[in-house]
């Protein structure tokens, strides 16, 4: 089966504190949101880290991901930095169906 | 109680003293807890503190007591425990408080920082464990950070959508010397709850209401948390539309009010459930479209537009799309909506007469009721109804979880906010007794009744010892149906009456009045309808000791109406295999 879904890339600024990765990863897992890619790095301000999170959700689900992320006190800001009209084509056979 | 004298910043003290000074500075007057090694340094300054510390018999009791205190007072409840098992015993109350948006601050001791990560004695990663159900949590290893973290914890717990915050403090951080440093302001880059609604959203909301012809006020627990009951009543009377109050919102709008259709949801009234199903607009105030209210989501309120007002932006559109969303404090929202709606109604006032006639017809045709057992035994619903009538509308009721909880939500008339406390989102058996203890501490002049199940009571009754020794004279009504009644009801309905492991035999063992007496309470018992009123009056007359009444009731009573889990609200049953007679209703 070939599915076509939009991948969104979120740039998330977080407090650079122990456990912050667990907070974000835990949120995705308990709310059944999928992380496609995750990259964590420093920023010029040593108290703030930057996460680049790729999620394959759209519309209402994307709004929920952002709203729930925003509720984490350690999350400072979230920006959708998706390059325009990037289609992700999943051509892998899907053995589940 | 001694008056709290603020401590000057810069004063040298241990981290433990700094913790206690910080709790005092945060305005804490009472906390519930139980010491152990890792938190022990804090218990030394607690000995001298102006804060009343109530020594519980189980940390779960401390957590639910803090919740009961918070739900009655609207202030943060505080509980405190040691590391490892002490901390994990707080897990259930923290999850419970998160589900019901209760402001709670939990303090736990942690093993010394050098031992963290070594599987040290009584080490548990309580910050990791509680991440999913705390609004935020902290691990403090530097004593200088204690005042700032405590100030933040109270700020986060009590503002925006309230919730539990846990502060885990390493033992060495409590022991080391530090300079006390209470912050003058709190700045959290990632936390800035929006309380004032957008003007445009208010205008849109008013316009939507003025266009509707079948509106329903769907009122949730947020209205009570925001102290918005007076504003709600004004708004409702301005429009003149029907109201439903969820399990968490009982008391937000007087049950005696003619526009009140009752509670919606799995065990809601026919009028309340049908109002939602037939509405063309839900005016949703501080409610979150929980599955116990919506039933099968895809068939919930199929013709209704949704106006959703909530303080938590993540609730908007989570379960149901909102046509108009108003993010903000619901008290501010309603206050802004009143003049906006007046203006909108001046242009176009919908005629709600036919809609109200339909709803009132359902309300009078399908009132809540129950059968009196033929064998002359005591019916549980009657016990609960008489408890409400005899003790009056200023009484605070808490409940456990099960049939007795549903009957207590149905058969007591709630007229005031913060008089009905229960575990709604989590459904925590064992909530009732400790929550009543906390409620009585928060409102010592009120009568507090815990309406508990015989199953629930056996989970947390040890806190009656705490009540007896600390002059907290609560009253407990055990609705003893010798079963895990709600589960048994599901077995009756969905498992062919195969009663696997739901019989508690609690009319034989334990002897509840003797158990109560052994814990320093008065123990009473009542088995016959003719003794009911005088037993309740006897319990009402005892105010210097906790009282426990074993109401030995009929075993097979069931909770009706019922929307079976996963089915549509349209399939509401008023009795076994009995739907309302829809054909005779004009809908
Ligand atoms: C801690 C916990 N365990 C299990 C359940 C599942 N449960 C829901 S209601 C109920 C029965 C409660 O029995 P009882 O306290 O006697 O109340 P009744 O329904 O008989 O009024 C059970 C076991 C629960 N809600 N909480
Ligand atoms: Mg029972």
Q: Give the overall pLDDT of chain A as a whole number.
A: 86
Alpha-beta classification of chain A: alpha+beta
Radius of gyration of chain A: 14 Å
**Count of all domains of chain A:** 1
The percentage of residues in β strands of chain B lies in 15-25%
Measured as a percent range, the helix fraction of chain B is 25-40%
CATH architecture of chain A: 2-Layer Sandwich
* Total beta-strand segments of chain B: 19
Query: What proportion of the residues of chain A form beta strands (DSSP E)?
Result: 35-45%
The main pleated sheet of chain B reads as: 6 strands, parallel
Global mean pLDDT of chain B: 97
EC number (chain B): 2.2.1.6
Cofactor (chain B): thiamine diphosphate; Mg(2+)
Organism (chain B): freshwater metagenome
GO biological process, one term (chain B): L-valine biosynthetic process
Please provide a written account of the structure.
The complex is a heterodimer of chains A (97) and B (587). Chain A has helices spanning 20-30, 59-71; strands at 3-6, 8-15, 37-42, 48-55, 75-80, 87-90. With 97 residues, chain A is of the alpha+beta class. In chain A, the strands form two sheets. Chain A has a four-stranded antiparallel sheet with strand order 3-4-2-5, with helices on one face. A two-stranded antiparallel sheet of chain A has the order 1-6. Chain B has three domains: 12-179, Rossmann fold; 199-365, 3-Layer(aba) Sandwich (Rossmann fold), CATH 3.40.50.1220; 380-552, Rossmann fold (3-Layer(aba) Sandwich), CATH 3.40.50.970. Helix content of chain B is 36%, strand content 15%. In chain B, the strands form four sheets. Chain B has a six-stranded parallel sheet, with helices on both faces. In chain B, strand 11, helix 13 (291-294) and strand 12 (305-310) form a beta-alpha-beta unit. The relative contact order of chain B is 0.11. Chains A and B meet through helix 1, helix 2 and strand 5 of A and loops of B. The structure holds thiamine diphosphate and magnesium ion. The site of magnesium ion has 7 residues of chain B, from helix 19.
């Amino acid at each position: 089966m070939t599915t076509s879904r939009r991948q969104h890339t979120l740039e998330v600024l977080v407090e650079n504190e122990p456990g912050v990765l667990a907070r974000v990863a835990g949120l995705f897992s308990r709310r059944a949101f999928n992380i496609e890619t995750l990259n964590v790095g420093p920023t010029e301000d040593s108290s703030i880290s930057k996460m680049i999170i790729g999620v394959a959700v759209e519309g209402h689900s994307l709004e929920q991901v952002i709203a729930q992320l925003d509720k984490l006190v350690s999350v400072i800001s979230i920006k959708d930095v998706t390059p325009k009209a990037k289609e992700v084509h999943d051509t892998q056979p899907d053995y589940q169906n | 109680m001694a008056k709290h004298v603020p401590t000057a910043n810069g004063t040298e003290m241990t981290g433990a003293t700094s913790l206690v000074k910080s709790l005092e500075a945060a305005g804490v007057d009472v906390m519930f807890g139980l010491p152990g090694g890792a938190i022990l340094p804090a218990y030394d300054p607690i000995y001298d503190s102006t804060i009343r510390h109530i020594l519980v018999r189980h940390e779960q009791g401390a957590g639910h007591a803090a919740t009961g205190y918070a739900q009655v007072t609207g202030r943060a409840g505080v509980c405190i425990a040691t590391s490892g098992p002490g901390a994990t015993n707080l897990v259930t109350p923290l999850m419970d408080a998160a589900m019901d948006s209760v402001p709670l601050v939990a303090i736990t001791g942690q093993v010394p920082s050098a031992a963290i990560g070594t599987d040290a004695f009584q080490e548990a990663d309580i910050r990791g464990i509680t991440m999913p159900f705390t609004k935020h949590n902290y691990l403090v290893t530097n004593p200088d950070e204690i005042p700032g973290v405590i100030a933040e914890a109270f700020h986060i717990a009590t503002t925006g959508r309230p919730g539990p915050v846990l502060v885990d403090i390493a033992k060495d951080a409590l022991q080391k010397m530090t300079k006390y440093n209470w912050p003058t302001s709190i700045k959290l880059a990632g936390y800035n709850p929006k309380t004032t609604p957008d003007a445009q959203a208010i205008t849109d909301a008013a316009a939507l209401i003025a266009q509707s012809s079948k509106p329903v006020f769907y009122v949730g627990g947020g209205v009570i948390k925001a102290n918005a009951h007076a504003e709600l009543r004004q708004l409702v009377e301005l429009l003149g539309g029907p109201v439903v109050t969820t399990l968490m919102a009982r008391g937000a709008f007087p049950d005696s009010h003619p526009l009140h259709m009752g509670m919606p949801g799995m065990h809601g009234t026919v009028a309340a459930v049908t109002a939602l199903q037939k509405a063309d607009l839900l005016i949703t105030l501080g409610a979150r479209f929980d599955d116990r209210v919506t039933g099968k989501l895809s068939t919930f309120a199929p013709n209704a537009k949704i106006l959703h007002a909530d303080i938590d932006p993540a609730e908007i559109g989570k379960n149901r799309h909102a046509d108009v969303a108003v993010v903000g404090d619901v008290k501010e929202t309603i206050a802004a909506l009143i003049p906006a709606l007046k203006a909108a109604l001046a242009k176009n006032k919908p005629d709600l007469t036919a809609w109200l006639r339909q709803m009132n017809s359902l309300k009078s045709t399908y009132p809540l009721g129950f059968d009196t057992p033929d064998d002359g035994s005591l019916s549980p619903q009657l016990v609960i109804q008489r408890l409400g009538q005899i003790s009056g509308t200023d009484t605070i009721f808490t409940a456990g979880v099960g049939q007795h909880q549903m009957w207590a939500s149905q058969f007591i008339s709630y007229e005031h906010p913060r008089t009905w406390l229960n575990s709604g989102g989590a459904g925590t058996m064992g909530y009732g007794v400790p929550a009543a203890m906390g409620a009585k501490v928060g409102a010592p002049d009120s009568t507090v009744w815990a309406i508990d199940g015989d199953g629930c009571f056996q989970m947390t009754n040890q806190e009656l010892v705490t009540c007896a020794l600390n002059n907290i004279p609560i009253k407990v009504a055990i609705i003893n149906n010798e079963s895990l009644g709600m589960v048994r009801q599901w077995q009756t309905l969905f498992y062919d009456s195969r009663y696997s492991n739901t019989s508690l035999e609690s009319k034989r063992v334990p002897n509840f009045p003797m158990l109560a007496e052994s814990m320093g309470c008065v123990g009473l018992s009542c088995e016959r309808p003719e003794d009911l009123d005088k037993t309740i009056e006897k319990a009402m007359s005892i105010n210097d000791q906790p009282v426990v009444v074993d109401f030995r009731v009929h075993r097979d009573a069931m909770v009706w109406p019922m929307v079976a889990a996963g089915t549509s609200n349209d399939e509401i049953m008023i009795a076994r295999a009995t739907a309302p007679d829809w054909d005779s209703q004009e809908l």
